[in-house]
């Protein structure tokens, strides 16, 4: 598989690793920063362990609702988490992305958290699972949009963390 298909995003937060990891694994933190700006997060289920699920919905200001889920594969607090990410329906069934019929059904994400001098660097690797050539092309073509989207989400996290340290 081509190396360029993998999405890699790195962001450094001015907060200790334990707190950054908790922000990714606890509903009381997630609701303050996860997702697009000005969208409301509703956590339907959060079970952070191998085989566990994070099932959630996000609602825009105009009432549009999107569902998603993570299925955790590996949790090594506070250093690493590995999960598959997909769009879902209200019951948690994996569905096609509402914006593209050629978006991969599942993305495997590996997040690593490293701390130095009280700051935490998050490195996220994302790669489609069992994707067709067309789905891989769609994923690769969306790298810039995903970089911008995660930059906005991680800016929200940085702002939230600043209120906690």
Automatic annotation (TrEMBL):
Segments forming domain Activator of Hsp90 ATPase homologue 1/2-like C-terminal: 14-161
Gene3D superfamilies cross-referenced by the UniProt entry: 3.30.530.20
Domain of life: Bacteria
SUPFAM superfamilies named in the record: Bet v1-like
Family designation: Belongs to the AHA1 family.
Name by which UniProt lists this protein: Activator of Hsp90 ATPase homologue 1/2-like C-terminal domain-containing protein
Native organism: Aneurinibacillus soli
């Amino acid at each position: 598989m081509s190396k360029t298909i993998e999405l890699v995003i790195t962001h450094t937060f001015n907060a200790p690793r334990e707190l950054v990891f908790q922000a990714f694994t606890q509903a009381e933190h997630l609701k303050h920063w996860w997702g697009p700006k000005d969208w409301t997060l509703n956590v339907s289920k959060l079970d952070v362990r191998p085989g566990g699920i994070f099932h959630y919905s996000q609602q825009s200001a105009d009432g549009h609702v999107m569902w998603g889920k993570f299925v955790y594969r590996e949790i090594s607090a506070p250093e690493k988490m590995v999960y598959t990410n997909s769009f879902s329906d209200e019951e948690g069934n994996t569905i096609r992305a509402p914006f593209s019929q050629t978006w991969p059904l599942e993305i495997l994400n590996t997040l690593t958290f490293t701390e130095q001098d009280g700051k935490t660097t998050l490195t996220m690797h994302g790669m489609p699972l069992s994707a067709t050539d067309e789905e891989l092309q769609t994923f690769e073509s969306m790298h810039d949009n995903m970089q911008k989207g995660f930059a906005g989400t991680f800016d929200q996290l940085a702002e939230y963390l600043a209120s906690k340290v």
